[in-house]
Write a structure and sequence with these properties.
Pathway: Cofactor biosynthesis; molybdopterin biosynthesis. By secondary structure, the protein is an alpha/beta fold. Helix content is about 20%, strand content about 35%.
């Protein structure tokens, strides 16, 4: 049976994307280079933190019972027998009737069970007046309080946030197996397309699609390079080869349809790519194509701004997430009440940009109906999906929307 590649449904297209793309082998990176990457295995602490019971304050390590009756009016006097700072290997011992001065982070000396903060003391020669009590454990951080050797710190598949990387470092984990983020190349094609900052002639337009895609990718932490190329088959081919040699995936913008000026898919055909699908029953975004070239994914995105972004968000971005070891669901889902009717089509999936409004106790999805496609795209905070086979969703119905960051 010949598998259909043209004019397929959105769900089938997404299934083909995820079924084609595989996660790469994990790489080991230093703990300070793994932020926003995905852990490739469970990670366990290799050290206690803190490695010794330590003081949380500048003050005096004491036997709590010695000063349990201390007050401003009736201070307790103790002998000061030494001093300890953070990193000192030895700090002596505290005996009843004595104290050792400690700085924040210093090991709590043997025999002490509390630290009285320095603001509640007065030092006199080799003695200290304690003006307040300090119950057992006061201002003391016990060994292993933050994490103990062998504790599970990060689970496989978890994203490594800034705080988690610090937690790993505190637990003595220095080399982290992670799924690397794919390096993405973007090529915008068209004689009418001008790179941002260049001179603009009548009839030309700036490569806003390229900037939008670039920004989405950077938002999600993917390294990205981009280029604009004219409608010249040799130059397009040369650019694809050059850009893909230093990337893990290629996105193209424009030239994905079927006219004599739509060169992108034609050039890729000549380069011998393996076409996975071309044209998806979705709007906007129908002209999207996906294939493999030199064992790397290529997504050909339409040139119209709404079609370009929607094809990227619904198909290319989930694929890139899967390569990066993430769940291929880039956006959260929220239940809202629909503010106004939206139409659908029995033959394809329709998307609408929307904003979200809080009305009383409920969230409402308000479809954007601006004259400008780019303005609507720029203001959208959510996407409404009308599935294939549904001709309309009525105002007031509860729906699920994709929430954009």
């Amino acid at each position: 049976m010949i598998k259909k590649k043209y004019d397929i449904g959105l769900e089938e297209a997404l299934s083909k994307v995820l079924g084609t793309l595989e996660r790469p082998s994990p790489v080991n990176l230093p703990v300070d280079e793994v932020c926003d990457l995905i852990a490739a295995e469970d990670l366990f602490a290799a050290a206690d933190c803190p490695s010794a019971t330590s003081s949380l304050k500048d003050g005096y390590a004491v036997v709590s019972k010695d000063i349990e009756e201390a007050s401003k009016d009736d201070p307790v006097k103790l002998r000061v027998t030494g001093m300890s700072a953070a990193g000192d290997s030895t700090s002596g011992a505290v005996e009843p009737g004595s104290a050792i001065k400690v700085l924040t982070g210093a090991r709590v000396p043997q025999g002490a069970d509390a630290v009285i903060s320095i603001e509640f003391t007065r030092e006199q020669a080799n003695q200290v007046l304690c003006l307040k009590n300090a119950e057992p454990g006061r201002n003391v951080l016990s060994r292993g309080t933050d994490v103990e050797t062998g504790d599970l710190v990060v689970s496989k598949g978890e994203m490594l946030t800034p705080a988690l990387t610090g937690f790993l470092a505190a637990g003595g984990v220095h080399q982290i197996p992670v799924f690397p983020s794919p390096r993405v190349a973007i090529v915008a094609t068209g004689d009418e397309v001008v790179a941002p900052g260049g001179p603009l002639k009548p009839g030309q337009l700036y490569a806003s699609n390229l900037v939008t895609l670039n920004s989405w990718l950077r938002h999600f932490g993917f390294p990205v390079k981009s280029r604009v190329v004219k409608d010249n088959p040799k130059e397009i081919r040369r650019t694809f080869t050059s850009m893909l040699s230093d990337a893990d995936a290629l996105l193209t913008s424009g030239g994905a349809w079927k006219s004599e000026r739509d060169l992108t898919v034609r050039v890729l055909d000549e380069m011998g790519w393996e076409l996975i699908f071309h044209r998806v029953r979705m709007g906007p975004g129908k002209a999207v194509a996906m294939g493999m070239l030199d064992e790397k994914p290529v997504f050909c995105l339409p040139g119209g701004p709404p079609s370009n972004e929607m094809a990227f968000l619904q198909l290319a971005l989930p694929g890139l997430f899967q390569i990066a070891g993430r769940s291929p669901i880039p956006f959260g889902i929220k239940k809202v009440r629909l503010a106004s009717e939206v139409g659908g089509d029995f033959t394809w999936t329709q998307f609408y940009q929307a904003i979200l409004e809080r009305r009383g106790e409920e969230w409402w999805g308000v479809p954007l109906k601006m004259k400008s496609r780019i303005q609507s795209q720029a203001r959208a905070k959510a996407l409404i999906k009308v599935p294939e086979g549904v001709d309309r969703i009525e105002a007031g119905d509860m729906i699920e929307v994709q929430v954009l960051p």
